[in-house]
Amino acid sequence: MRPRIFYGWYMVAASAAIMVLSASTIYFGTGVLFSAIVAEFHWSTLAAAAAISLRSELSAIAAPLVGYLIDRFGTRPVMLIGLGFVAAGLLWLSVIDALWGFYGSLALTAIGTSGSGGSVGTIAVSRWFVRKRSRALSLMFIGPATAGITVPVLTWLITSQGWRTANVIWAGVIVVVCMPLALVIRDAPEKYGLRPDGDPPDQSEASSDTSARPRVQASVLGGNRSLTVKEALRTRTFWQLMLAYTLTNLANTPAVVLAVPFLVGQGIPTETAAWAAAGIPAVSVIGRVGLGFWGDFYDKRYIVAFSFALQAAGIFLLAGITEAWMILPFLLLFAVGFGGPIPLRSALQADYFGLGALGSIQGALMFMTTIGGFLGPIFLGALVDMTGQYQLGWVLLAAVCALGVPLTLMMPRPLAPGRRAAVRQTEA
Hints:
- By secondary structure, this protein is mostly helical.
- It has a single domain (7-193, 218-427), classed as MFS general substrate transporter like domains (Growth Hormone, Chain: A).
- Helix content is 73%, strand content 0%.
- It contains 22 helices and no strands.
- It has helices at residues 7-21, 23-28, 30-41, 45-73, 75-93, 99-116, 118-128, 133-140, 142-146, 150-161, 163-182, 203-206, 229-233, 236-257, 259-265, 270-294, 300-318, 327-339, 341-353, 358-387, 391-402, 404-409.
- The longest helix has 30 residues, at 358-387.
- It starts with 6 loop residues before the first helix and ends in a 19-residue tail after the last helix.
- The relative contact order is 0.16.
């Protein structure tokens, strides 16, 4: 007898909750923490921004290894270890007294978030859904969107208890709340006598032996041939998808992590700037759910390209903010555009390359796209130190972000979920 609620939806909920309290909160709350630490130690904007970029780059370096470990051992053990690294990094951050400690603690959290954040959850959820994949991923990514409500909480902890105590408290939340939630995560549904999307199980598959090693085999992931990592790397589609997301990451990462110090420098009160930072993930729900849901019914390329255009327009508006009310149009454009491509990236990967080596392929893709997140804050921080203002940097980043639109539209049309797109070497 099939359960009333398909188990895959429990995994969606657990993954969303983990992202609320771990990787996404650290990501969206960076601006508040950044301002508090720089104010105490009087570091330059470039020195502190470089630490944030180092965090992004280490996440990129760790991504291929994390992807391989997921394909080899499954998502749950990787997620538990990753959460442990996040907690350890936050505890280290609470006792730093020099710039090298700031770099080191953020490096540790970077490795942890690579093994416990959205990249792990998307692989697990993608394996449990085919027809409803875009919808499931969209719902899962509501999690980091609601992380925005924790940014004011983090701000209150920092102002009332100090940033060191705030990090200790957050490390405790990771251990007490997130680690038990990670136990909900499971690998391919066929291993438990179920089928993707909660469809009725095939009797021949249900009676077969699924107690083998934890590595997920391509033969139980949709029945169609999946590409290996080497095959995916030989396709033009992989490189177009990588470049589009790399350029947009280069532009949107500074907008997320450095918006607070920019707004404060424009005369916006710190509390208002913190709410603006919280508004990015909150408003991005419109993109994550609204645009993400369309991915099961319409061409994902057009939705992603539209999202990139919204991001570029929002970053351009950010350059002109001088009063608090001007934050609203920035949020409506940038945050909606920021949310849309997040669930659709994993859905596109599954459509183009299959599920058999999804962890390794996603790791390779993230290694390259995260380079944009690494370079963005360094570029903007250096420009601020040279010119004394952010405006030129925002305009240039908006132009870079806009390049993702034609790159996405030039990709071949993805086939329907569950059918592998014909991306062979002949594509090149």
